[in-house]
Structure formats: structure tokens, C-alpha cells
From TrEMBL:
Organism of derivation: Anaerohalosphaera lusitana
Name the UniProt record assigns to this protein: Rhamnulokinase
The gene coding this protein: rhaB
Swiss-Prot/TrEMBL keywords: ATP-binding, Disulfide bond, Kinase, Nucleotide-binding, Rhamnose metabolism, Transferase
Pfam families per UniProt: FGGY_C, FGGY_N
Residue ranges of every copy of the Carbohydrate kinase FGGY N-terminal domain listed in the record: 5-245
Location of the Carbohydrate kinase FGGY C-terminal domain: 256-447
Main EC class the enzyme belongs to: transferase
């Protein structure tokens, strides 16, 4: 029979409500509702379409409860990191939540370093310096005397904000909170030093809770709207990547993970934060994991580049599916050129093909108007970047990596999976695509006492999904091209 749990899984490109049935050794997942997501323009600012998202989520929850015949043991929400909503004294949203790609954080890293030593921020938070981080979003509000910030009494990160709207409890789940760069990774609590150093209001921050705890149940208002009985609400790994890593089907081999979607998160699981000079210089992040672990990883721009090219081409009248794009990329010239996929200009939405060509021009490479060629260039560049980061992660963590487990929607791009194996010269195991929802549900099952550990969760995932393997090919040519890639990247880094 098993027990039913609902996962609300919010990604930057789409949201999903999934129903999972967990029995002794097996997880069965059913997609109940999928809806588009994406930042929207609001008077020249980039925001999330929050009312629509919440409406889709409620509909999905109602449908999931119905599909489960009313028998649901838990519900939890996970989402992308760093973004947040602000609540006023009445507990109402002060304004629509911003998208981390909004330009309000331009220049904020430099401002922060004028106020607090960069190395000290890293020693404290252990987080990779990216302008999207909550800390720089808040700093920009503070420095611009934001009226919304002045009215705010509580800050809730995206998944926790949805959870609050569902069950009424205000909290900051640890894994999601750790993406903010406002947490002290040694204590797992808000960093007084960073709040004081940057002059930010620590009193906005709610209590930190650990993944797997029961935070409440669906509120009477939601139950009457959905015409359902109260369902227990859990804090999963509220951070999508934390949930995904909890569902990596690995056992005892030396493995690294790559959570592949809009972003590529590549790293290893370690027992404690690594904030050494090496980790600092190589730009690694230490995010909180499920089960007391740390996700030591690099945040790589990921399939965003391809998603944005696709959006641009569609606006110009040529709509291509991801499958078509992958096929065109497969027929295009390999190693046409290389991009630094984390190049600053690629962060904001819009004009991606033009931005890519500008980058190629700037770095003395051939440009292209061919869509398949551009897609191939992006995939080759991602694969090469994975190789570089695996080498760095091995050095900074002192761990040898033998297998790379790739999870998330990005595994549907089989060409990228093969190129990844070719580039890194190691075995790649892919699956499940729905790792985030799986992890979300299995963390609830841990919280509900149905399963005992992350190891058990991973065994269940291994039993429940078809995994694929990719072995490296053409090693000599990839080695040769890697040398070119590195030369180009290092030259570019010297320029910037
Ligand atoms: C991936 C992700 C990633 C980053 C980004 C903002 O969805 O959570 O870990 O933090 O979104």
C-alpha cells in the first residue's frame, strides 16, 4: 500500500505538484500538475508571477489529494535558492518577490567588499560570491532606502513563503537559508557578523528549522477552499538542490553529483564546510544538506543559456523543442568554440544569441548564426566546464571522483550527458530526472518516521528509477581540446 506524500517543486522554468507513494523499498511518482514559470517584467523590474504560481500550486494540491483518495501523510515545498518575499506586521506580502536576475544587484558585490572584507564574508558563510545571493539583494534594498524593506517585519525564502501561505508557520529551512550567504555555516544560524558588517536587519530573519520536521498542517482556509481534510506540512530540503542531492542514487563509490537544470550544481557531499584558501580562490560554495551534510559545490550557469536562446528564437518566429535543438547540436561541428558559461553578461534574460556572439568576438573566436551550432557550442562549453570544476572539487576537497551522478531535467539532453562523460573522462550515471521531487518526498518520509536515513532514501531511489550510464569516448581529442579551453578561459579571466 505505502504512504502518500505531495511534493510542490518550484523551478525557475516550471513548477510541479507531484504525488509520491513510498512503500518499503520503492517510490512511485506521479506528476499531477505542471505549470510554466519565468520572471515577469513589472514596471521595469524582474519579479515572479507570485499570485499565478500560488493559484497553480493550490489547484495542484487539490488534484493530488483527490488522486490519493484523500489519504495523504504529508506535503512539502521546495524551490530555487536565494529569492525571498517580505512580510509586513500583519503577515502580508509587502510586494511581489523579485527574481534574482533583476539588475538591482549590479555592483553590489563591490559595495559589500567596501563594508566587509571579502575573505571574512567567505570564512563566515562559505558561499560562492554571486550577485544573485540574498545578501546582495538585501544590500541593494538597504542602500537604495527601499520602502518595502522599511515596512518589512519578516523575510521568507521562496519555498518557505509558499509553505507559510499553506500552513501559517514562519520559518527558514536550513538548506534554503544556506544559499543566502547570510548564514554562518559553522553554527547553522544567521551570521551576526555579516548582518552587522553590511548593516542589514537581522531581526527580519525567522527561526531556522532542520529538514524533515513537521511544521504544521494545511490551514483551515486552504482546507475549506480545497474541500479537504488537514494534511501535515513538512519542511523538506526546501532548497531544490538539497532535495535533489538527497535523492542521488549513489552508494559507496567515490561520487560527485551534478544537479542539472536551469543551473548546473556540481560538487560532493562533505561532513563539514570547507572554507580554506583553496576553496575561496576556486569559488566553491558550502550549502547545507539533508542529514547534517554539507553540499560543497560550484554554481554553474547551466542550461539557462540554451533556454534563453530558445526563447529568443521563438520570439523571432522559430519555435524549437529541446529535442530538436539537441538533434541539431548533434549534427553541428564539435569544438566550434568555447564560452565561459559563468560570464556575467549571461546572467540577465534577453538577447542570449547576440550576447554569445559578442563574447565569441571579444575572445577572438568565430561567431555563428546557426542555431544548431550555437546549441553545440553551449553544450561543449558546459561539458568542459564540468571537467574543470571536477578537477577543482577534487583538489579543494581532497576527494577523488570516480563517478558523476547527474540528476534533474537536464538528463533528458542525452547529448550533453555523453559530452559530459567524454569531457570528464569518467563514468556518468544519469537519473532520476525528478530527483528534486523524489528527495522532497523521501525527506518527508524520514520526518514521518517511515524511513530511517538518507542512505535508505538513496537505496529506494536506486530501486525505483531506470538509470542510464555513459562511458567516455574520444579521450585524446577531448584532452587536446581541454588544453585550448583552459588557455582561453585563463586569458579571459586575466582580461576581466
Ligand atoms: C537551482 C538553484 C541553485 C541556485 C539558483 C538560484 O534551482 O536553487 O541552487 O541557488 O537556483
Amino acid at each position: 500500500m505505502g504512504k502518500n506524500y505531495i511534493a510542490v517543486d518550484l523551478g525557475a522554468e516550471s513548477g510541479r505538484v507531484m504525488l509520491g507513494n513510498v512503500s518499503n523499498d520503492k517510490l512511485e511518482l506521479k506528476e499531477i500538475r505542471r505549470f510554466e514559470n519565468g520572471a515577469v517584467d513589472q514596471d521595469g523590474t524582474l519579479r515572479w508571477d507570485f499570485a499565478r504560481l500560488f493559484c497553480e500550486i493550490k489547484k495542484g494540491i487539490g488534484e493530488a489529494i483527490e488522486a490519493a483518495g484523500g489519504k495523504v501523510e504529508g506535503l512539502a515545498v521546495d524551490s530555487w535558492g536565494v529569492d525571498f518575499g517580505l512580510l509586513d506586521a500583519e503577515g502580508d506580502l509587502v510586494e511581489y518577490p523579485y527574481c534574482y536576475r533583476d539588475s538591482r544587484t549590479d555592483g553590489m558585490l563591490e559595495k559589500a567588499f567596501e563594508l566587509m572584507d571579502k575573505r571574512a564574508i567567505y570564512a563566515n558563510s562559505g558561499v560562492q560570491f554571486m550577485q544573485i545571493n540574498t545578501v546582495y539583494q538585501l544590500l541593494s534594498m538597504k542602500l537604495n532606502n527601499s520602502p518595502a524593506l522599511a515596512r518589512a517585519r519578516t523575510l521568507l525564502f521562496t519555498a518557505d513563503l509558499i509553505s507559510y501561505l499553506l500552513c501559517g508557520r514562519k520559518y527558514a529551512e536550513y538548506t534554503l537559508a544556506s544559499t543566502s550567504q547570510l548564514m554562518n555555516m559553522e553554527t547553522g544560524q544567521w551570521s551576526q557578523e555579516i548582518f552587522d558588517g553590511l548593516g542589514l536587519p537581522i531581526e527580519l530573519m525567522p527561526e531556522v528549522v532542520t529538514p524533515g520536521i513537521r511544521v504544521g498542517e494545511l490551514s483551515p482556509e486552504i482546507c475549506s477552499e480545497l474541500n479537504c481534510e488537514p494534511v501535515p506540512v513538512y519542511a523538506a530540503g526546501s532548497h531544490d538542490t538539497a532535495s535533489a542531492v538527497a535523492a542521488v542514487p549513489a552508494s559507496d563509490e567515490n561520487w560527485a553529483y551534478l544537479s542539472s537544470g536551469t543551473w548546473s550544481l556540481l560538487g560532493v557531499e562533505v561532513p563539514e564546510a570547507i572554507v580554506t584558501d583553496d576553496a575561496f580562490e576556486m569559488g566553491f560554495t558550502n550549502e547545507g544538506g539533508v542529514g547534517g551534510t554539507i553540499r560543497f559545490l560550484k554554481n554553474i550557469m547551466g542550461l539557462w543559456l540554451l533556454q534563453e536562446c530558445r526563447r529568443d528564437w521563438k520570439e523571432q518566429g522559430r519555435e524549437l523543442s529541446y529535442g530538436e535543438l539537441a538533434e541539431m547540436a548533434g549534427n553541428a561541428e564539435p569544438f566550434f568554440g568555447f564560452l565561459d558559461v559563468n560570464y556575467d553578461e549571461f546572467l540577465a534574460p534577453g538577447d542570449m544569441p547576440a550576447k554569445i556572439n559578442r563574447y565569441l568576438e571579444k575572445t577572438g573566436q568565430k561567431t555563428t548564426e546557426d542555431k544548431g551550432q550555437m546549441a553545440r557550442l553551449i553544450l561543449d562549453s558546459l561539458a568542459m566546464r564540468y571537467r574543470r570544476e571536477i578537477q577543482k572539487v577534487e583538489k579543494a576537497s581532497g576527494r577523488a571522483v570516480e563517478v558523476l551522478h547527474v540528476v534533474g531535467g537536464g538528463i533528458k539532453n542525452e547529448l550533453l550527458c555523453q559530452l559530459t562523460a567524454d569531457a570528464i573522462g569518467k563514468k556518468v550515471v544519469t537519473g532520476p530526472a525528478e530527483a528534486t521531487a523524489s528527495g522532497n518526498i523521501l525527506v518527508q518520509a524520514m520526518g514521518a518516521g517511515q524511513i530511517d536515513s538518507v542512505e535508505t532514501a538513496r537505496r529506494i531511489v536506486t530501486n525505483s528509477f531506470d538509470l542510464a550510464e555513459y562511458l567516455p569516448r574520444d579521450t585524446a581529442i577531448w584532452n587536446e581540446k581541454y588544453a585550448e579551453f583552459i588557455q582561453l578561459q585563463e586569458r579571459d579571466e586575466d582580461v576581466s
